[in-house]
Amino acid sequence: MGIFDKLFKKSKTTNDKTTSSQQRPDSTASQVNVNIRAPQGNIKDCDICDKSTQISEMYAFTTKEVVLNPNYWDYLFSNNPLWISSAQALIQMMRGDKSRENTEKVNHAFMVVEQLAADSNLWGVCEECTRHFPAQLKNKAKEYIKEYYLNNKLPPDAGPANMDEVRGKIGQILYFIDQEKR
Known about the structure:
By secondary structure, this protein is mostly helical. It has one domain. The chain has helices spanning 2-8, 63-67, 70-79, 81-94, 100-118, 135-151, 163-181; strands at residues 11-14, 17-20, 43-45, 52-54, 59-61, 123-125. A two-stranded antiparallel ribbon has the order 1-2. It has a two-stranded antiparallel sheet with strand order 3-4. A two-stranded antiparallel ribbon has the order 5-6. The longest helix has 19 residues, at 100-118. The model is unreliable at 1-40 (pLDDT under 50).
């Protein structure tokens, strides 16, 4: 999936040519490393669903816009087996079941969440995945990608997200998922 490629910096093959996925900066959080270009064939995988998409048809969202968006987490917790399992473990822990298995799943999930939140890169998102974002934000994301390619200009809030805010959004989503199951 796109998020795992984003996390583990896998190489992608596009039109029989290899392009590397986004890389995180190793220095300060204020440094923003933007690498959404895919020079071979102008195709990049969506960072949410992993669908190969022409860059000209993509939208560029900041890390904050993605990981602070409850719809993003709802999508992951509903569609990805690893995240579904993590969500179930988190809900069980919220209900008081602090078994070793649940604790390990939750710890691993939050390790991944912290890596996502710390990412300073822009997220390349396909048209289909923009449905997880408000229309106003989608319009801004289209402008972000244009500004980046035309003027090499980054969005004003590019950079990592606040982990406490991310945990709060995840908690909200899990609460609603739990309420729907009851």
